[in-house]
Amino acid sequence: MKPQLTLLICTFNGSRTIQQALESIANQSDVSKEKFEILVVDNASTDDTFRLATESIQQLDLSGRVIKEPKVGKINAFLTGVEAAEGELISIIDDDNFIEPGFIHYTLEIFDRYPQVGMTGSRNHILDDQGLPFWFAWANGRYACAQPWMTDVVQDKSESSIVIAETAVISGAGSTFRVKPVLDCLNKGYCFFNDTHRGKKMKITGEDLELCWLMRSLGWHFAYDSRVQIRHAIKKERLELNQFQVLCKTIGAGSIGIDPFLFTHKHSGERWPFKWTWQWQLISKIRRYVNLQIVHIAHYSADEKQKFKDWRDRIECTGAIQRLISERGNYTQHIRQVASGDWTELRVK
Questions:
Q1: Is 37 helix (H, G, I), strand (E, B) or coil?
Q2: pTM of this prediction?
Q3: Are strands 64-68 and 117-126 parallel, antiparallel or unpaired?
Q4: Would you say residue 279 has pLDDT above 90?
Q5: What value does the mean pLDDT take over residues 75-89?
Q6: At 197, which helix (H) or strand (E)?
Q7: Which of 149, 191, 268, 335: CA 20 to 30 A from 134?
Q8: φ and ψ at 195, to 5 degrees?
């Protein structure tokens, strides 16, 4: 019997925490082990991640396997995992994510009860024993340490413990999605625009955000249950302000990956609107940056929290501008791919 859920762990040099991540899965005592499998994709690690993961799965008596993806880049590991997964659902668990008791049980419950839901998110928080900088509370969402942002809500907690919405921003860590819609898109030629590893080019993040908007374009709903939780063991060096600045740039660069989902779905004519061009989008991003600068001046006497958010938004905007300039052709190709793709037949009926 095939498992209902695949817990997908894409890892690169994850030996620091991979064992704890697997132990947290083994501690899911309220669900039969027959309902889930573990799939670890070792993405060209140079440490002993492969050995540790293999031994841990065996020692913990879990149904799972470790496979290798030699091409560096999280999106490559992710796509390898999607192709290899046996479950009809995939939960993305990073190698530094420790799922809380009930994670699998409540996740499966959502998909069993709500067939219109295509993707769910979790309530993520950082490990309690870590020393945090004062500004972390203003940036926890950027570290996947928050709950999903949901809008166009069709069911809220007044009706049940589950929130269901038509639109959501869900962090990859702790998210779960239906596999078939993603495979159908890939088989029709869809290529993810956001790729974490880009060689000597600028760093990009946002494959999870792109996945959200792809699922939305197919008509799937999103769900969130606060009982579905993970703990995130973030490396201390990532909590330094200069590292956060780098993170903001990668987030800004990845944000343009959702552009076509925001405006191409409205197009029905034969001519390509000028607003779809990288030139127009670059102008719009520059205009936003200028507006953010004006806001920064206006908030000169504001509190530290507001100043921090203004600074963060400007950094993210520069990431978007830099990527548009360096990937003009790729951006145009992405726009045309989404606009011209035959997604109609894949939409939820």
A1: strand
A2: 0.93
A3: unpaired
A4: yes
A5: 96
A6: none
A7: 149
A8: -135, 120
